[in-house]
Amino acid sequence: MNIAALKTDIAGVPIEEHPQIVQQKSRDFYWYSPVLKRQLETVKADIVASPRTPDEAHLVIGACFKNDVPLTVRGSGTGNYGQAMPLSGGLVLDLSAMNRVIEVKAGTVVAEAGAILADIDKAARPTGQELRLFPSTYHTASVGGFIAGGSGGVGSVRWGGLRDVGNIVSAKMVAMDGSHPTVLTLKGRDLNRVSHAYGTTGIITEVEMPLAPAIAWIDMITAFPTLEAAVRHGETLTAADGLLLKNVAVMDAAVAPYLRRHRPYLPDGSAFVVTIAAAFAADDVAALGEASGGEVTFRSDRVDMAAERLPPAFELSWNHTTLRALRVDPAITYLQVLYPQPDIAGKVMKMAQLLGDEAPTHLEFVRFDGAVGCFGLPLVRYTDEARLDAIVKLHEDNGCPIFNPHRYTLEEGGMKQTDPVQLNFKRRADPKGLLNPGKMIAWDDPDFDYGRPYLFPSLRA
Ligand SMILES: Cc1cc2nc3c(=O)[nH]c(=O)nc-3n(C[C@H](O)[C@H](O)[C@H](O)COP(=O)(O)OP(=O)(O)OC[C@H]3O[C@@H](n4cnc5c(N)ncnc54)[C@H](O)[C@@H]3O)c2cc1C
Fold first, then answer.
1. pLDDT 10s digits, 18-38
2. pTM score, whole prediction
3. Which residues 6+ apart lie within 8 Å of 423 measured at CB?
4. CATH number of 217-397
5. Is the C-beta atom of 247 inside 6 A of ligand 1?
6. CATH of region 1-213+414-433
């Protein structure tokens, strides 16, 4: 790696070498995991470059290829698994200055990869449209980072996951394959080459995302005497084809103390369902809840949100639930669980009984291949790594797969197997293996045994 030559080659592009800023831009929300905090604490790039235009980005990418400098892309750095952390040092490509919303069309929006999701939505709203899906980091995350690192979130109860066919229209990406790198526009199934690849197969510079009609949404909380009743209500809402919903989250009573501003609306000892519903559907959501023994304790259309300084419901959901718990109790961490069909409620209750207060239940309901799906982000009262691994195993032994957020590789965080589409594409798009090294096990060690955790060579010391 020749950083001095690289700097000469990219003269004119804004760079940053101040050690503290480089360190800050080399980190994401990896500290959610005590395991990753220990492993990745010292990870740091050599230099940060912040191109302002596609031409500047191409120049930096080509110069990294020429000078054998590893390149890790950064959108906003809100990823949770050290995804955007440069394990081999080198250059962090900060795309936050490439943030233009290029065009809002009938049905889609075209934006540069560094554009913030909330800004894209703001540009779409005057046309009567809004983004279908966004992570709960809507106000800070970039659209490129969402595609490369995220999986779904608010809106998934209606539209499914981000990688579900149709949820991304196209992506322009740059390969790491020469001093004048190849630019490709990916559509349809080819999007799988870069979506959720952590930037190991290419750098996304521009995307086209589908839009939905803009809706007036209402936040609601319905309290239930038991967790099981709350889970069943979440499932009923998600299955109700006629209800227009944006999010359905279920939380056990033990989560209530962490949602501090909403605490007055969370009766002691009650499990609760946080729903984002179309205003015109709110009465139907309430009626369904009451018919199952629930009580609506909060509706955003009946309080002064600004005066009470209440965050929007999407910032109580997904990994914001974890964030709020961590702020109160830094010893808390979390897991990512799939509770498969059939009998979602039975599986949730089994795990809740096995783990009790060590892992308070937090569920997010989604549409999964046209059916009701349920992900869990249980809070975990962390003791040590061995116990965390035992809790993971307990879920898996009970038919609930874990997408482990305490691992920084694509495979271990996902399906624990090689993604052949991404691996084959990387062979062409990144022949020197310079893109986000260490995140794709299949590239480094094709025969890796998934029975043990992977440690990238640069971290072994
Ligand atoms: C409180 C909290 C709540 C969250 N809620 C959700 C949620 O609801 N749903 C969800 O899916 N995620 C969630 N996340 C994770 C994360 O916020 C999202 O995935 C977000 O979309 C990442 O965007 P970013 O711009 O911060 O990406 P970054 O963290 O900067 O990058 C993420 C990954 O993508 C790569 N990358 C970034 N930009 C590009 C690009 N242009 N081309 C190629 N590769 C690129 C990076 O190298 C990295 O591997 C949450 C995180 C936190 C801390």
1. 999 999 999 999 999 999 999
2. 0.96
3. 440, 442, 443
4. 3.40.462.40
5. no
6. 3.30.465.10
